[in-house]
């Protein structure tokens, strides 16, 4: 199958690393995968194409914005690609009822926003996937999409220099409340026992992106003075090609997720990248979710309220945790590899096409 | 003929003046012209979403945002056949990528679109692209100047050069508030404005105050700094040193009156426009104001658009010298202004433009 992905081209955020993995895994499995556009030196591993006639299926990867589906870009896509060959991967759970997590994070600010968003989707395709086992909306289908790449796993034999005890690689996008209430107090308590701590990503300095919607002020909330007081080094985001090496500089990596995505049990690239890094991931998620994705060993890496104790335990008994990480990696290789994901994607798209043929025949 | 104009309306920029004039002229000539979209309160022009009741949709494009977003875009594309959609490409987007000084027709880091997307995007919307230049570069583009001169907007009407000169010199009317007024936003104009302002500085006593009206003349805007763009450069210290007043943009329907409060008004075309020979609303509108236009444009272009009489209004290299001469012998230069107005009324009126447009639609 020939699959063209369409998405906002960001080299340091979103699903770009997954697309690179699909290109490679597709080649290995006999499928051609590309991203819509022309070659970009910032995205070296990605095959690009603008030849809409050369592909069978078109998957729009929609993250937290619709602007990239600009009115300059869409006419050609809509007029050249039949509707029944278009699908949407709804990575952020926008195709749902209005969901608000504890009055903090949400998928839409208002019902009007939600309707406008869904109207966009409905104009593009009636086939919407979400990267979760359990979509909440009946018409949405499950497609886990994100996966694990055993080939890029930094194994112990390639031990990287550990410059930090803790690394947290994520943008400050709806994360501050959890970091501020759960992580920072724990770090403060054990700070004298820790070496360097590094937060990598955008908006930890308290400045939202220019011209951002004022209704999103809470999404970028931060207290840079507090981070500084705790000796946390804040660094700008890294391109997707540097994510695993950057994570590998930490003995421990904290894996956080914005509350909405965790609430909807949506997977992301980060779920798997962190297990490719030469580090011990500690997961800010419920133990049940950790087990569901990572297998039984994943429970041991889930953080409950005793964040500080867990961090100190990892630093004290690194070999024990490395064994747990290896067990998880084996589970991921067996159940979540990108080769498996591309097969799932092809099967899902083929099944959808068959459904359509059946439906049109029965009419 | 019923024409539906598609463009983002902004009272302070772009083609709002020209578009509102097309509505009036169309009505005077027995046609219906409306703007696509929900009814606007300002400017007061008829708006419509009833695409099928129009014969043609004419997209007036400066930016990608001039194409309406989904779902409005889908309504246009679904209900207006491609052969009845026309694009007026006001910035020469439908060309190879062009860089002139700091100016450009495509810049991905500013709007997310690469050059090829403009070309393919236009081709998806329409087979007919018009550009407001006498010499389009592409063979599949038709010349259509679009913007025009409105003699009815002359304020006040001067019956002779002598009368105009006396009023201009403050002998019959109250003295002009400004020596020089320039209306235009701080975008790709500083490289021409700076030497102009420096050249006229020695005349300050004799000339009177100088005023720049438009967005971001008081400082370089944040978005330009963020994107590393030189096109919105300005030197506030120099402006202060030269005693230049800056003020915010003037709404489109107050420009002629405002410019008429000055003795001189320079006409600059940004580097991209000079390169492509593009005209703008200001190319013509300045001659409606009670001022002496200073045509800071190539002589060949002036001759083509304004006629031979206007060559007297081209200061050439000695801007200050020419302005001094104009102040000494205003009647002679007002002869040139009135003759040029006559030329514009004969060759570049909105009525002529409208008829030209209808001819292009029929062809």
What features would you describe in this structure?
The complex is a heterodimer of chains A (363) and B (363). With 363 residues, chain A is α/β, with parallel strands linked by helices. Chain A has twelve helices and 14 strands. In chain A, the strands form three sheets. Chain A has a seven-stranded parallel β-sheet, with helices on one face. In chain A, helix 5 (224-229) links the parallel strand 11 (197-200) and strand 12 (232-235). The longest helix of chain A has 25 residues, at 338-362. With 363 residues, chain B is an alpha/beta fold. Chain B has 16 helices and 14 strands. Chain B has helices at 16-28, 72-79, 108-111, 115-125, 161-168, 190-200, 204-207, 222-227, 236-241, 255-259, 271-276, 281-285, 299-306, 319-328, 330-347, 350-362; strands spanning 2-6, 32-36, 47-48, 56-61, 85-89, 99-100, 103-104, 128-131, 141-143, 178-183, 210-213, 244-247, 262-267, 292-295. The longest helix of chain B has 18 residues, at 330-347. Chain B is globular, with a radius of gyration of 21 Å. Chains A and B meet through helix 2 and helix 3 of A and helix 2, helix 4 and helix 8 of B.
Summary, kept brief:
The complex is a heterodimer of chains A (363) and B (363). With 363 residues, chain A is of the alpha/beta class.
């Amino acid at each position: 199958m020939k699959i063209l992905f369409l998405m906002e081209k960001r080299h340091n955020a979103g699903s770009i690393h997954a697309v690179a993995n699909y290109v490679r895994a597709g080649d290995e499995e006999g499928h051609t995968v590309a991203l819509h556009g022309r070659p970009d030196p910032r995205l070296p591993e990605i095959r690009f194409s603008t030849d809409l006639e050369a592909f069978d299926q078109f998957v729009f990867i929609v993250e937290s914005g619709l602007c990239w589906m600009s009115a300059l870009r869409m006419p050609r896509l809509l007029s050249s690609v039949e509707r029944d060959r278009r699908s949407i991967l709804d990575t952020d759970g926008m195709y749902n009822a209005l969901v608000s997590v504890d009055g903090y994070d949400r998928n839409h600010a208002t019902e009007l926003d939600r309707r406008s968003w869904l109207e966009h989707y409905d104009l593009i395709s009636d086939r919407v996937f979400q990267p979760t086992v359990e979509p909440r909306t009946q018409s949405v289908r499950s497609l886990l999409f994100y996966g694990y790449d055993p080939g890029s796993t930094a194994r112990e034999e390639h031990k990287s220099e550990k410059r930090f005890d803790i690394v947290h690689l994520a943008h400050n996008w709806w994360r501050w409340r959890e970091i501020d209430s759960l992580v920072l107090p724990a770090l403060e308590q054990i700070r004298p026992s820790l070496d360097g701590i590094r937060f990598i990503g955008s908006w930890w300095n308290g400045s939202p992106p220019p011209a951002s919607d004022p209704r999103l002020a809470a999404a970028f909330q931060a207290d840079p003075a507090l981070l500084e007081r705790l000796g946390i080094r804040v660094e700008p985001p890294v391109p997707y090609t540097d994510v695993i090496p950057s994570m590998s500089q930490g003995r421990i990596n904290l894996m956080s997720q914005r509350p909405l995505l965790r609430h909807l049990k949506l997977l992301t690239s980060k779920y798997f990248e962190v297990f490719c890094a030469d580090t011990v991931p500690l997961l800010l998620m419920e133990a049940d979710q950790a087990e569901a994705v990572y297998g039984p060993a994943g429970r041991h890496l889930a953080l409950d309220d005793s964040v500080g104790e867990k961090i100190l335990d990892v630093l004290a008994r690194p070999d024990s945790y490395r064994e747990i990480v290896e067990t998880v990696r084996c589970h991921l290789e067996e159940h979540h590899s990108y080769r498996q994901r591309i097969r799932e994607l092809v099967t899902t798209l083929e099944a959808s096409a068959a459904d359509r043929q059946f439906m049109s025949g029965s009419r | 003929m019923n024409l539906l104009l598609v463009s983002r309306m902004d009272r302070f920029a772009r083609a709002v003046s020209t578009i509102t004039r097309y509505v009036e002229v169309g009505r005077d000539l027995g046609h219906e012209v409306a703007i696509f979209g929900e009814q606007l309160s300002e400017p007061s022009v008829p708006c419509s979403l009833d695409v099928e009741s129009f014969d043609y949709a004419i997209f007036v494009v400066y930016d990608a945002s001039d194409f309406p977003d989904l779902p409005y875009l889908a309504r246009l594309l679904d209900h207006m056949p491609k052969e009845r959609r026309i694009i007026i490409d006001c910035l020469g987007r439908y060309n190879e990528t062009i860089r002139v000084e700091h100016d450009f027709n495509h810049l991905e880091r500013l709007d997310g679109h690469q050059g090829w997307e403009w070309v393919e995007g236009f081709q998806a919307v329409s087979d007919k692209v018009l550009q407001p230049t006498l010499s389009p570069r592409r063979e599949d583009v038709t010349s259509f100047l679009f913007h025009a001169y409105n003699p009815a907007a002359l304020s006040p009407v001067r019956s002779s050069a002598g009368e105009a000169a006396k009023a201009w010199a403050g002998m019959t009317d109250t003295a002009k508030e400004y020596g020089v007024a320039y209306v235009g936003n701080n975008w790709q104009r500083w490289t021409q404005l700076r030497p102009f302002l420096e050249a006229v500085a020695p005349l300050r006593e004799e000339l009177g105050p100088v005023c720049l009206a438009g967005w971001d003349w008081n400082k370089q805007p944040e978005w330009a700094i963020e994107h590393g763009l030189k096109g919105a450069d300005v030197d506030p210290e120099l402006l202060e040193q030269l005693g230049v007043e800056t003020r915010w943009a003037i709404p489109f329907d107050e420009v002629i009156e405002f410019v008429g409060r000055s003795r001189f008004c320079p006409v600059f075309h940004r580097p991209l426009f000079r390169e492509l020979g593009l005209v703008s609303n200001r190319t013509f509108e300045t001659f409606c104001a009670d001022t002496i236009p200073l045509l800071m444009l190539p002589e060949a272009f002036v001759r083509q658009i304004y006629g031979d009489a206007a060559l007297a209004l081209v200061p050439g290299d000695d801007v200050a010298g020419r302005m001094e001469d104009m102040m000494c012998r205003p009647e002679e230069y007002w002869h040139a202004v009135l003759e040029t107005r006559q030329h514009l009324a004969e060759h570049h009126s909105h009525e002529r433009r409208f008829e030209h447009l209808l001819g292009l639609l029929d062809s």
